[in-house]
Specification:
Layout (H helix, E strand, L loop, with lengths): L5 H4 L5 E2 L2 E5 L1 H7 L4 E4 L3 E3 L12 E7 L11 H15 L3 E4 L19
Parallel strand pairs: 3-6
Antiparallel strand pairs: 1-2, 4-5
Length: 116
């Protein structure tokens, strides 16, 4: 079982150890009749300061957080998020990605200089 990762949410065919009729993971979500899943901020955020802040202070809005991937290096974060969304869509579940554009860390991605 992959806990706390993009691919962990995409896992299906799992059950409680010793109780194979009690589904876990994506199978359990499907049994509940869930039609949509909202992902809390999954954009790359600053974890260096020690304050988790639920990911609501992103550094990069268009880069998935590597913490939720099997590897923070390389393209795993993009591939695994795409795989998660694809799997959820195959199972008939819509995906809502939570983004709060007026929250940002030290970097101001939408700042622009305006001529006066």
């Amino acid at each position: 079982m992959i806990l706390g990762k993009f691919l962990g949410l995409a896992e299906y065919g799992t059950a409680v150890p010793g109780h194979p009729i009690i589904s876990t993971g994506l199978d359990h979500i499907l049994e509940l009749g869930i039609t949509h899943i909202q992902l809390l901020p999954i954009q790359h955020f600053d974890r260096e300061k020690g304050a988790y802040n639920w990911g609501y202070m992103p550094l990069q809005y268009f880069s998935p957080e590597g913490w939720y991937a099997s590897s923070e290096k390389g393209d795993a974060r993009v591939r695994e998020l795409k795989q998660l969304v694809h799997t959820l869509h195959q199972k008939g579940i819509g995906v809502v990605m939570d983004v709060v554009y007026n929250h940002f860390d030290k970097v101001f991605p939408f700042a622009m200089s305006c001529p006066h």
